[in-house]
Write a structure and sequence with these properties.
With 222 residues, this protein is an alpha+beta fold. It has one domain: BirA Bifunctional Protein, domain 2 (2-Layer Sandwich). The protein is 29% helix and 25% strand. It has 5 helices and 9 strands; from the N terminus they run βαβββαβαββββαα. The protein has a 5-stranded antiparallel sheet, sandwiched between helices. It has a two-stranded antiparallel sheet with strand order 2-3. It has a two-stranded antiparallel ribbon with strand order 8-9.
Length: 222
């Protein structure tokens, strides 16, 4: 059964995060953090089946190197509470093959982020859940500034406030459902996802009482 999930958050220094460390973890790689003079090694992480940095047309090619990109972001953002990157995480339909899932993720990221001028660090994870079923999902770290087109050496322009708007997030949520459903239909797969809440879909669920494991064992014995 296809599951809808798309979550957006900001990676920033205020919460103690590092863009380099975050990129290393999501890509399952080892990256050198120049600002902190340390290395973040997640090369033993399993389940990363695709990893790439996707650049808009006017971005320096040097930023296709993940380590260079996020170290440059860290160097440019000088505030102690700087917002370093935006992350969009979304679930891929488990009915797709890995190749089809990666293709779908790339199409969504290209159309909604890269074509708007963001640099996107895309990593697709194909984990296996406790139920033995695949839990494919994608992590996309996005730059928050325009890529400079005036020859500035650092390559960064101002932050784009429009990318922070609630309306933009809602567009991404809706567009992901549309694109995923279009692809599932093209492949004649009988599964669909819906970005709307259960209430908006007209689905009423009765509240369930959660029983912890110890209490459940007592209930069974009784």
């Amino acid at each position: 059964m296809a599951i809808y999930h798309l979550h957006v958050k900001v990676i920033g220094r205020k919460s103690g995060s590092s863009a380099v460390a975050s990129a290393a973890y999501r890509s399952g790689s080892r990256l050198r953090d120049e600002r902190l003079d340390s290395s973040h090694d997640f090369s033993a992480k399993r389940g990363v089946v695709h990893s790439e940095v996707m650049l808009p047309e006017n971005a320096p090619q040097a930023w296709s190197d993940r380590e260079r990109l996020w170290n440059d972001v860290e160097a440019f953002e000088v505030r102690k509470d700087a917002q370093l990157a935006r992350e969009v995480e979304f679930a891929l339909p488990r009915e797709l093959t890995q190749a089809r899932g990666i293709e779908l993720a790339r199409d969504f990221v290209r159309g909604e982020f890269v074509d708007r001028g963001m640099i996107a660090d895309l990593n697709v994870h194909w984990d296996i859940g406790e139920d033995g079923m695949p839990k494919p999902h994608a992590h996309v770290m996005l730059t928050m500034r325009q890529v400079s087109v005036n020859g500035d050496e650092n390559g960064f322009g101002p932050k784009v406030r429009e990318w922070n708007r609630t309306e933009m997030v809602e567009r991404w949520r809706e567009r992901w459902a549309e694109l995923a459903n279009e692809r599932l239909a093209e492949l004649d797969i009988d599964a669909r996802i819906d970005h709307r809440s259960l209430e908006a879909q007209g689905i009423a669920l009765e509240p369930q009482t959660q029983i912890g494991a110890p209490a459940k064992r007592i209930e069974i014995r009784g």
